Amino acid sequence: MQTPQSTSALVVEGGAMRGIFATGVLDGFLEQDYRPFDFCIGVSAGSTNLAAWLANQPGRNYKVITDYSCRPEFISLRKFVRGGHWLDLDWLWQVTIDEIRLDLETFGAQPIPLYVVTTCVATGEAVYTQATAANLEPLLKASCSVPIAYRAFPELDGAPMTDGGVADSIPVIRAYEMGAREITVILSRPLGYRKKASRATWLVRRMLADSPQLAQVMLNRAQRYNQAIEFIQNPPADCSIRVIAPPAEFDVGRVTTDKKRLDAGYQMGLAAALTD
User: Fold this and answer.
1) In which band, very low, low, confident or very high, does the pLDDT at 82 lie, cut at 50, 70 and 90?
2) Distance between CA atoms of 145 and 152, rounded to whole angstroms?
3) Structure confidence by residue, pLDDT tens digits, 85-121
4) Model pTM?
5) Angle, alpha carbons 250-228-128 (nearest 5°)
6) Three-state secondary structure call for residue 236
7) What are phi and psi of 76, to 5 degrees?
8) Distance CA 15, CA 36 (A)
9) Cα dist from 130 to 5, 133, 231, whole Å
10) What phi and psi, each to the nearest 5 degrees, are found at residue 231?
């Protein structure tokens, strides 16, 4: 009796500028024409990286991260202190759509489903939406909408949404629940990292006073993140997980704008893809 072929999934973590590592990995996959996956799931910057990979656009997200995302029109603590966005996704989405838009036709024609994670503001629960050419751009924007740093909540089908990483930073358990038994995970931090509980509980609750469910899930984020890491390290007996993670010397943070550090992180991703 022939054994059924195992379903294969690719899961990509977010992490804002830390996503430069996954950008390199996926550009390396494109260089090798490597796409052995039945479906993929992305979170925040991980979802934008997957979208460019599926749209066959190497270098596109490298430019987004190392150029557009480093401009003061996008990232400005001064604007935030004055009541604006720290991370102005409205500007970033419009300028990149105008100048280096994702190839929606190619994305829509390729066969690998992409599921994008967002967090429902009203409930604090993760929402996994299949991307299409029609919904891709607003869906990615919602998944990248870091609460507090971006002061708006984009709506999807009438429901306010925010950063998918709040509710499910590494959706590897979801991939397993969807039937994947061979899972590749691209992380944004070196192996061994564990998220610590927030020390700014009062600030989170104050800034999100009108969204108590969202505030609570943000405060529980470390627990869910570490559960995903535990699942990766100790998967069920019927599941194999391959991890592609930055090396220990990876020196990119969530809001790093130093070009040399970003370039180094990108090269680490390329090397990981080509040698893994």
Assistant:
1) confident
2) 8
3) 889 999 999 999 999 999 999 999 999 999 999 999 9
4) 0.94
5) 105
6) coil
7) -155, 110
8) 25
9) 23, 10, 24
10) -65, -40
> Mean pLDDT, the chain, as a whole number?
92
For 36, list phi and psi in degrees, rounded to 5: -90, 40
Output the six-digit token pair for 162.
């925010």
Q: Of 150, 124, 130, give the one whose Cα is nearest residue 212.
A: 124
| Cβ contact 33:64 at 8 Å | no
Q: Which residues are catalytic?
A: 44, 163
Window from 50-54, 55-59, 109-113, 155-159 with minimum mean pLDDT: 155-159
The candidate with the shortest Cα–Cα distance to 30, out of 8, 46, 9, 52, is 52
Q: Which pLDDT belongs to residue 5?
A: 58
Burial bucket for residue 205 (CB in 10 Å: 0-12, 13-18, 19+):
middle
Using a 10 angstrom Cβ sphere, with 0-12 exposed, 13-18 middle and 19 or more buried, the burial of residue 240 is middle
Helices (H), 101-253: 104-109, 136-143, 164-167, 172-177, 201-207, 212-219, 221-233
Return the structure tokens found at 134: 């029609």
Read off the tokens for 161.
């949404």
> Buried b vs exposed e over 72-105: b needs ≥16 C-beta within 10 Å?
eebbbeebbeeeebbbbbeebbeebeeebebbee
pLDDT in tens, 151-183: 889 999 999 999 999 999 999 999 999 999 999
